[in-house]
Amino acid sequence: MKTFIEQLINGLSLGSIYALIALGYTMVYGIMKLINFAHGDIYMVGAFTGFFASTYLHLGFVPSLLLAMLVSLILGVTIERVAYRPLRDKSKISILITAIGVSLLLENGGIILLSPQVRTYPQIFKQHMYSFFNGIITISNQQIVIFVVSIIMMVGLQLIIYKTKIGKAMRAVSTDPDAAKLMGVNVDRTVSFTFAIGSALAAVAGVLVGIYYNSIDPLMGIMPGLKAFIAAVLGGIGIIPGAMVGGLLMGVIEALVSGYGSSLYRDGVSFAILIIILLIKPTGLFGKNVREKV
Amino acid sequence: MSLLSIKDVSIDFGGIKALIDVNIELEKGSLTGLIGPNGAGKSTVFNIITGIYKPTSGKVIFDGKNVSTKPYNNTKLGIARTFQNIRLFKNLTVLDNVKIAEHIHVQYGLLSSFIQHKKYLDGEKSQNIEAMNLLKIFNLDKHALNLAKNLPYGEQRRLEIARALATKPKLLLLDEPAAGMNPQETKELTDTIRFIRDKFDITILLIEHDMSLVMDLCEDIYVMNYGKIIAHGTPDEIKRNPEVIAAYLGEESPDESEILSIEGGA
Amino acid sequence: MKQILKNRLLIFIGLFAIYGIIQILLSTNILNDYYEINIVLMGINIILAVSLNLINGFTGQFSLGHAGFMSIGAYTSAIITYKLGLSFPLALLVGGISAGIAGILIGIPSLRLKGDYLAITTLGFGEIIRVIFLNTEYVGGASGLSGIPKYTNWTWVFWMAVITVVLIRNFINSSYGRCCVAIREDETAAESMGINTTFYKTLAFTIGAFFAGIGGALYAHNFYIIQPETFNFMKSFDILTMVVLGGLGSITGSILSAIFLTFVYAVLQDYAALRMVIYSLLLIIVMLFRPEGLMGTREFSLKKLFKKGDESSEFTVN
Fold first, then answer.
1. Where exactly are the transmembrane stretches of this chain (chain A) (predicted)?
2. Binary contact (A294, B47; C-beta < 8 A)
3. Which of A159, B257, C53, C263 could form a disulfide with C57 if both were Cys (CB 3.0 to 4.6 A apart)?
4. SS3 B173
């Protein structure tokens, strides 16, 4: 029981991080029907910005986080502008290939610029364990930070999407881009804004992962990126609460597989989940079926 | 004897009834029209016949058999179709478009393809000959090696019909064959359709908005509105049917001359 | 008919000349071992790129799992020669067949999906295959199999590449291959023409997987060691780059770009990251400025080059 709860808390921490990344995938997919393969690498850039901000600029947690969000946001918007926008009316496959290209560019460019070595993240929060119910539940202050920051971000996102004008534009474009355009929505600006928010959230995930696992490297975005994508599909791609739930579920499943089975199978299990979902209910847990018009 | 009978077919798309108790009988060798306002369910009827949609209730019997829910099986049974929004293989040559449709009658196996055995060479030759003969009928033979997407609109429509015929069907379904054509092209199309019915000895069901074409061409007409068949009869009967006039023009102007002037639908 | 036989003979003489010249250069050591390794690699990459092009370019089913099929061919063939001590030709065949069977098993469920969903699913299957090898002690787990006998040489690679290219080309030029291309162009229309799309997608996928398996088998018997890590999805991206650069739907394009990118690979062997940066820029630039790749769906042909070939000979009817 104790290990189970321990793994559950680990899974929820990891899952919150997946959820933050998954939100970016799901928003971009919702608005452009594109799997942004480079999203995991934007998360990596966020983690590195946070690392440099706290190690060399000696900034505190919140300023480092904000700087990481800003850098990733600019990167995300630039990528969309340069690499995806010219292809928006071309086949989906050509944007997908471009996205794979951008992803490889960030990873390998990262290796060249930052060296492939693993960096140790500074201990922004000295680890401290809190114990409840006679030690049945133990939780670290880092995990608490992850939960608190994730919740703030998710609530913030909901407010943006449902309470602001740009949020309304995002919902309009994701329902029907052509109709939205006719109604006077600036589609280009809305897409840019979506990339901005998604990338900033990925940066938050990057900084949190740095704090949680203490180590970062230029290829760190590949696997979490794929898993967050799986989380988005699991919840129903394009659906924001789906990405949150999917992310948490993925984290928990993965922690339980590592805890009880073999960690070597961990990645295999994630992909098995993806395949099962796509084959049985491709629209995900929260999705509705849509019929193709002939 | 009837080649196709649709019996009490209804279909439901998540609560929306697209077809309600539709009954259609097609005699062998007949040329039948299916008309009705936009959204009446005409294309849905085609999609049911070809097996793209499965009816919620009712049966479709073709040549004594239930139609399959797999479109490719129905093509093998002898049902071919064209599409409302032309669906050619755009980046392939006109000849290849027709040869692809000939595939269900292919005379060589996969293994002879791999080694380009004599069977393959002979089979390809006869496919080419058949395809070119078909293209000649539609006056498209001079474009055989052009890409389908480079044909003018009217010729694309004709190629789609030629391609459908290459499957050697017993029943040909034409979905708005005259859409987007000028009167001259429509006139030629009318002649072509009559010609292929006689030449290929097949049964034709066509959806069309162009009333003059339907009235001129079809011996038998079904009229649909809101997912139901509201009238069935000869062109003359349909012209006088008050329900049809109401469906097209609204209740207050039951003037038969106006129904003839409707072109292109809403 | 006579014309066809004459053409075939000419092609064969041409191929034999290429084979012979390089064989002489290799055996007289004018081209040393370093060249041999890279020339062999070019051949393997041609097999991989052309077979992936059948799936992605001709049939239009975007797969990112080619490295998975390659690994199945590599591992099973290594088991045949290294573990069981059987012959190399048998190993090639078994490698290809097992990859082909995997292609059927993976293709049937996943080919119902389209576009990017199919891409990510095949990527997932490729990774699952890798995880399975990673956890199988019999094939060495993470450290892989080492000590695989070196049977792959110029002769094997050249003729296997020729066979792959010829068979896939013949397939594409047949009624069966045209069905696959029809599916790429418009799946609904293809189905209405009597084409069982699931069957033909799976067929193309299986043929592609079979040759990827052969490529993997040749790879395993060239490099002494194979590890699961060699066949991760980055390898699939490598092959994809060749196909995209050459042109989705052009066999000669795939051949040329496989040769070119293997050359880049050889030059930048010690700078893996730089090589990948170049690959990634190629992908982006090709997509932005020439999405159809170098060759588009066209084929390079000597006949057209010399303009003496009778273009219409294949089409003359009546």
1. 12-30, 65-83, 95-115, 135-161, 191-213, 228-257, 269-287
2. yes
3. C53
4. strand
Number of B to C CB contacts under 8 A, please give it.
106
Nearest CA among B206, B4, B170, B5 for reference residue B77: B170
- For residues C168-197, give the mean pLDDT: 95
Looking at the predicted structure, is the pLDDT value of residue A234 above 70?
yes
Which two three-digit tokens encode residue B46? 């085609």
- Secondary structure (3-state) at A282: coil
* ipTM exceeds 0.90: no
Which of A84, A90, A91, A98 to mutate against chain C (most C CBs within 10 Å)?
A98
Nearest by CB to residue A98, choosing from C272, C274, C284, is: C284
Backbone angles phi, psi at B241, to 5 degrees: -70, 120
Shortest alpha-carbon distance between residue B66 and chain C (Å): 17
The secondary structure of C290-310 as a DSSP string is -TTTTTTT----HHHHHT-S-
Contact A294 B13 (CB under 8 A): no
- The answer to whether C127 faces chain A, any CB pair under 8 Å, is yes
Which CATH number does the domain housing residue A240 bear? 1.10.3470
Tens-place pLDDT, residues C93-126: 999 999 999 999 999 988 988 888 899 899 999 9
Q: What is the pLDDT of residue A217?
A: 92
Overall number of domains in chain C: 1
Cα–Cα distance for residue pair C171/C51, rounded to 1 Å:
12
Domains and CATH numbers, chain B: 1-78+169-266 (3.40.50.300), 92-167 (no CATH)
CA A153 → CA A17, A198, B142, C315, distances in Å? 11, 11, 64, 65
- CATH at residue C251: 1.10.3470
Q: What is the mean pLDDT of residues B22-32?
A: 92
Q: Would the pLDDT of A135 be above 80?
A: no
Question: Comparing C-alpha atoms, which of C118, B216, B93, C270 is closest to residue A279?
Answer: C118
pLDDT single digits (tens) A49-64: 999 999 899 888 899 9
Token couple for C29: 């050591």
One-letter amino acid of C209: A
**What is the CB-side half-sphere exposure of residue A272 using CA atoms within 13 A?**
13
- Which chains have 3+ CB pairs within 8 A of C? A, B
CB proximity C302 to A under 8 Å? no
Partners of chain B (3+ Cβ pairs below 8 A): A, C
Distance of CA C239 to the CA centre of its chain: 8
**Cβ separation of B47 and A291 shorter than 8 Å?**
no
B39 pLDDT band (50/70/90 cuts)?
confident
Provide the domain limits for residue C124: 15-297
Residue A134 resides in a domain: no
Q: Which of B13, B43, B83 is the closest to A291 by Cβ?
A: B13
What's the token pair of residue C169?
């080309």
- Closest chain B residue to C194, measured at CA: B72
Tell me which chain B residues have a C-beta less than 8 angstroms from the C-beta of A294: 43, 47, 52, 83
| B182 phi, psi to nearest 5 deg | -85, 170
Kindly identify which residue of chain A lies nearest to residue B82, measuring between CA atoms.
A294
